[in-house]
Amino acid sequence: MDEEYDVIVLGTGLTECMLSGLLSVEGKKVLHMDRNDYYGGDSASLDLTQLYKKFRTDQVVPKELGREKDYAIDLIPKFIIASGEMTNILVHTDVTRYLEFKQIAGSFVYRDGKISKVPSTEMEAVKSPLMGLFEKRRAKKFFEFLQNWRDNDPATHQGVNLDKDSMKSVYEKFGLEPGTQDFIGHAMALYLDDDYINKPARPTYDRIILYTSSMARYGKSPYIYPLYGLGELPQAFARLSAIYGGTYMLDKSIDEIVLDSDGKFVGVRSGEETVKAKQVIGDPSYFGAGKESEGGKVRVMEERKVVRAICFLKHPIPQTNDSDSVQIIIPQNQVGRKNDIYIAMVSSTHNVCAKDIYVAIVSTIVETDKPELEIRPGLELLGPIYEKFVSVSTLYTPTADGKADNIFITKSYDATSHFETVTEDVHDVWKRVTGSDLVLKKRDLEVEQ
């Protein structure tokens, strides 16, 4: 191969496919390679045969689960926040023409041993068992304060400085109980732990406004999800890249990242062939992740590991009004942990499994040497589990920004239940690769209610 590319992208995870699609649209000459024979990398959606091959090499797929092609099981469960940055990127690139989205029916939170719906309307808020009558009044004042806030109008600030005052002091100003703080910080601002509470309130304000505006956008819940599973997302961006001249090679071994005498990237060797390019972008697994090599290109993230259990159920999750899809958050304080536990459930209405099967994925950040025990509070909410596949993933992040050697590495997919951290990584890598900010057009997205 004598051809030289602007960028070689390694791995077809969602982050990498988004970047290759966006770079192709910008006119960059992109070659995209993956050692797997399917799209999606760590963020793929697998059919039944692929799923059993990955987790149960010695077991035959049970006949009663139905046709394997009816399944698209996400390895990493995440939902799309309706008004979030992921939606902006989907709409900006017009990849929505390859995708259809459906709403997630409800967002729930675990409190005092029960599952309660996160209110999506004022009527639901009035009836919600999450707060007593007086607390509801205090919470109403708190939310009105957030909704009415205008940066350039001090009359709306009520003496609060979002950039200096901690979130704790804002909660205290409105007299909110610890249980309500828990619910707001974890079920709405979607923080994984309580570190945010002593930091300035601005990021939490932004997150709550994002949640409430997403909730208002389509009703029921703030989340949407692509039909046929999350694996459709990287494929849609791969199509986009191909339309703009990007080249794809799946099932290709990556044998060496070739560097020059100064340690700068010059190409990728696969077997006897070496392809040259000015820059390389790739997921951590292509740069020594898992080998724990000192002085390497990647290091283990502070959060270290995530445990996930993919569960097949033959019924909706109890206490969720028979919803066909839900997110349930178990705030860490409710179960004596440092990190929240997430449950994401989808079903045949999303074209990801056979009729009358429900797929629930329970996940959290690992805190002990017994990861499966840590997700037990989530598993216990599911009712009888027909089949369960458990995995523990180590999380990696690059050690350098890549500007010195032209090697730009993405981050592992974290434990959050949505794509906002993925889009942050896309923006970050984009800026490092191109030297400029990624600017997006905003339009509306059509979603099946």
TrEMBL record:
One of its GO terms (biological process) is small GTPase-mediated signal transduction. InterPro entries: FAD/NAD-bd_sf, GDP_dissociation_inhibitor, RabGDI. GO terms for cellular component: cytoplasm. One of its GO terms (molecular function) is Rab GDP-dissociation inhibitor activity. PANTHER family: RAB GDP DISSOCIATION INHIBITOR (PTHR11787:SF8), RAB GDP-DISSOCIATION INHIBITOR (PTHR11787). Belongs to the Rab GDI family. This is Rab GDP dissociation inhibitor.
